[in-house]
Amino acid sequence: MTLIRPFCGYRYNEEKIEDVGKVMTPPYDSIGDNERHKLYDLDKYNVVRVVNGLVYDDDTEDNNCYTRAKTHLSEWLRDEILVRDKKKAIYMYEQRIEYNHSNYSNRGFVVEMKLCTPDEKKVIPCEKSTVKNITERSKLISAVDANVSMINCMYIESEKYITNLMEDISERKPDTVCTIDDGTEQRLWVIDGEKEIDYILELLKDHIFFLIDGQTRYDIALDYAEKRKKENLGHTGDESYNYIMTLLSNAYDDGLMQVPFHRLLRFPKGFREDFFVSAAQDHFKIEKIIVDTELGEMVDTIKKQIATTRKMNRFAVYTGKNYFYRLTLTDTEFLKQIMPDVSDNYRSLDVTVLNKLILEDIFNICEDSYIERVTYTKSITDGIGELKKGTHQCMVCMNAVKAEQIRAVVSEGETMPERSMCVFPKPAMGVIVNKLD
Question: Quick one: which H or E segment has residue 201?
């Protein structure tokens, strides 16, 4: 089996869909309950019905979000709402969005990528799977037998030969252009000429791919492929269920960035601020920073005050008042004592420091209580909104992991902790559907 290959994807039929931007959705982890209802109302063919369908009180074993997902996808294929490309193709896919007054993009080639175990060292996991949603995602792929969203892998090519090729392709008219609900522009080019496909495969053939978004889906796909293999007496290894739809992006592309996952924390017995301040002084320099202005100023000040340009671990702890605490790690030796079996690169990650010295050491949030007590958010503004609702008592604001940190950790053969990173912009769902035959 080859590591990557072209495939015949299914795409929304623009002869039947007036605005394909209304049938694609933002990434899975961006869709809350309110957003889900909004996407349902956008268009009756919105892919949210397949990938993140509504759950009803009267759902049964025979009628639930997974059986409905299967029905929707089957009907859309039957009615040619989704149509399959006649020739195998590699797809060049680009997302563009303005964020904080800057323009960002994630451009790469979409291929079928072979599912490899970690010991094969061809597809390198960068972080642990997210425990939450594993059951749901596993039930979904078993119901629809398809990749409805793509994972994202990063390759490292400083010479940018592939990037230059993509620049040339981008001069052509895209096969699809639209803007989805979150404001991200989607552009897709279908590359189905044999010579051009062979050239792209040749450029990519010697690269190692670092899995930067979709670890949970990748692990589920491995289990799903093993199940299909056992069911298929004529298994050859060439079947599409041995592969996963993947966007390959260059780590050196300027438009791609990492954004942080901030942590919202719950305290069943209440949050004791005085205890936190006292305990944090064991390993951190702690500073109280007052921001007696509007919400936007608080958000901007937190970001500026924890920003770092050198090797330093710094966080903000915010409790919903007109101030926050800035924590700067001062005791790096303690981490070496309690984590002697990991590399310096792993110990230097903000997420490592957060998990060991703040969540575990100060707040007593361990693995068995993590899901109940910790919620993730990519937006400090949204996090502040949750604090005001009273669902959480404080938020730990973080910096984004750097690309060089990702490379350094995985080069040691290590995997970063769960929710260490979030690529931005992330691939949308429904751009291409890949049926797993």
Answer: helix 194-204
Q: How confident is the model at residue 378, as a pLDDT? A: 83
3-class SS of residue 427:
coil
DSSP 294-313: -HHHHHHHHHHHH--SSS--
Share of the chain above pLDDT 90, in %: 66
264 in Cβ contact with 377 (< 8 Å): yes
Task: Using the structure block, give the residue that is written with the tokens 């298929």.
Answer: 232
Q: Are 272 and 28 in contact (CB under 8 A)?
A: no
At 93, which amino acid appears?
Y
The architecture (CATH level 2) of 260-399 comes to: 2-Layer Sandwich (3.30)
Question: What 3-state class would DSSP assign to 5?
Answer: strand
Q: Is the dihedral of CA 52, 53, 57, 60 positive or negative?
A: negative
Residue 328: in which H helix or E strand, if any?
strand 323-329
Q: H-type helices in 26-64, by residue range?
A: 33-42, 48-51
Residue 31 has pLDDT above 90, yes or no: no
Residues of the chain with CATH 3.30.1760: 260-399
Which residues lie closer than 8 Å to 342 by C-beta, 6 or more apart?
352, 414
SS3 29: helix
* 240-290 pLDDT tens trace: 999 999 999 987 777 777 788 899 999 988 899 999 999 999 999 999 999
C-alpha closest to that of 404 among 243, 246, 258: 258
Residue 336, helix vs strand vs coil: helix
CA separation for the pair 332, 311 (Å, rounded): 11
Return the closest-CA partner of residue 124 out of 427, 419, 412. Answer: 412
Residue 313 pLDDT > 90: yes
Q: What is the pTM of this model?
A: 0.82
